[in-house]
Each structure stands twice: as C-alpha cells, then as structure tokens.
Write a structure and sequence with these properties.
Structural class: mainly alpha
Helix content: 55-70%
Distance between the termini: 81 Å
Largest sheet: 3 strands, antiparallel
Strand order of the largest sheet: 4-3-5
Number of helices: 10
Mean pLDDT: 80
Strand content: 5-15%
Oligomer: single chain
Order of helices and strands: HHHEHHHHEHHEEHE
C-alpha cells in the first residue's frame, strides 16, 4: 500500500482510538458517579474535565502524541508543537467540552444560553465536516484542532512501520461469494429429479415387484415407511403411498417412478378396501 495513503489511514485510526479511549474512561466515571453519593453528581463536568486533563497531560503534553497516535507509531512534529501551541491545544481540545457540560448542567433554565449552545454546536459540526473534506483531499490535519493550530503528524515507526494485510479479507470475500452463488443457484436445481437419476446410475437397481399390496393395519407407505395418510396406489403396480408423499414427489419430479419397482407414478387412485 502506498505510504501516503497508509499514513492517512493511520491518522484516521488514531482519531478513532482516542475517541474510544476517552469513551471508556467516561463510561467508567459515569458508573462510579451512579453508585456514589448524589452530592458528587453536580460535579460531573469538573470530574470529566479532570479526567480529560490527565489523559492530555500524560499523552500530548508529555509524549507529544495522543494515546491513539502512540499505538499507531505517530506523533506531532516537535518543531510545530511548541509551548504556546500546547496551551492552545489544551484550550481547544479539552476546555470546550467542560464549558458545554457546565452550561447544560447549571444553566438549564436559561433559554438564551441553551439556544446559543445549540447554534455553536451546529457550527462546530459544520466545521468538523468541512475539515474532514479538507483532510480527504490533502491528507493533513484529521481533526479541527490540528487544522486550527497547523499541526501535522510525523511517522515515529521507523523500521517498525505498520503494515496492513488483506489476505483474510480476500478469503472471507471468496467464501461469501461462493455461499451467495450456492444460495442463488439451489432454487433452480430439481433435487428430487437429480437424486432419482443419480440413484439410477450409482445406486442399486430396483427389483421389479408388481405384487399387489393390500391395505391393512400393518401396511406402510413405500416412500416414508409410515402408516399411509389418505392411502393411494399407483395404477401400474398397485403399490401404496401416502397421498402427500406421492403428490409431493410428482410435483417435484413429473417423471417420478415407484421406488419399489420403478413403475411410472403419474397415474394413481385412492385405495379401496381394508383387510385386517
């Protein structure tokens, strides 16, 4: 894979990993607050700010790379991320979430603030979308914060360059395509007719037995070997079947022949008379 496109994939993966890491810690914090005294609930924005600050402190501030970037051997360019940009990075990446949560929790009755917050959030969403389009075109600054500060990612992998293999995906696609092909072709195969012909070629030859069967309490259907339901006999050989066994086989295979003697089963009649 071209290194330029691989770097773009890594950048997007790093953003997703960072979001996932923050979500794991935020979910854990929420569970702790659920079982804690209610007095701590009102400090949820502050506790969330503390958590996000610690994550930022031990990643971007200390290593010049977020946790997601470190996992994918990426980092910010040291020359670009100077002290004043670190402060701005914190203000842009961490502080806005706290301000939004503080307004939502404390100023719920202020209609003007809630409307302003809604407009601001909509504007940010539009900016996020435009920045993503810019990233797809240029391959730089996958997040809005990176774009505002002019930060670019550098490859920190060295000889441990991350590689992506698609062999397992190829196997899965081939298998899925094969299963879909089988699923589409099976309805067009007359299984009963095919089975009859294969039995005629590879199976044992059917012995001719045209002895007339008499219906009794011990009579069994030639096909299902059970007590016949609505017993029918094939006219040419007088062997007895369930109506549904015979009718179903004829519907599936018009050339169905008696499985006992090989007589044509197209003509059949209801069995009359019962011998005890």
């Amino acid at each position: 894979m071209n290194s330029k496109y691989l770097l773009r994939v890594n950048q997007l993966d790093a953003v997703q990993l960072d979001d996932g890491i923050r979500k794991i810690f935020a979910d854990s914090l929420s569970k702790i607050l659920d079982i804690s005294p209610k007095i701590f609930t009102k400090f949820h924005p502050e506790l969330d700010l503390l958590l996000r600050t610690l994550l930022w402190r031990f990643s971007v501030y200390k290593e010049k790379a977020s946790f997601g970037q470190q996992m994918l051997f990426l980092r910010y360019n040291d020359e670009q991320l100077r002290s004043w940009k670190l402060i701005l990075h914190f203000l842009f990446a961490v502080a806005p979430k706290y301000l939004r949560d503080r307004i939502v929790y404390k100023y719920t009755n202020s209609e003007m603030l809630q409307k302003s917050l809604s407009v601001t959030q909509t504007t940010l969403n539009v900016l996020y979308l435009l920045n993503m389009m810019h990233f797809l075109k240029t391959g730089r600054s996958p997040t809005l914060v990176d774009f505002l500060l002019g930060l670019e990612y550098a490859d920190a992998a060295g000889k441990h360059q991350r590689t992506i293999g698609y062999f397992h995906m190829t196997r899965e696609l081939l298998w899925a395509g094969f299963i879909e092909f089988i699923g589409n072709i099976l309805p067009f195969i007359n299984y009963h007719k095919l089975k009859r012909r294969l039995q005629g070629v590879f199976g044992e030859k059917t012995t001719i037995n045209r002895e007339k069967m008499k219906l009794s309490d011990k009579t069994l259907c030639v096909f299902c070997n059970e007590r016949p339901t609505l017993p029918q006999e094939i006219t040419s050989c007088c062997h007895i079947y369930c109506y549904y066994c015979l009718r179903g086989n004829l519907d599936a295979d018009p050339d169905f022949k008696c499985t006992l003697c090989g007589s044509n089963g197209m003509q059949f009649d209801k069995v009359s008379g019962f011998v005890r």
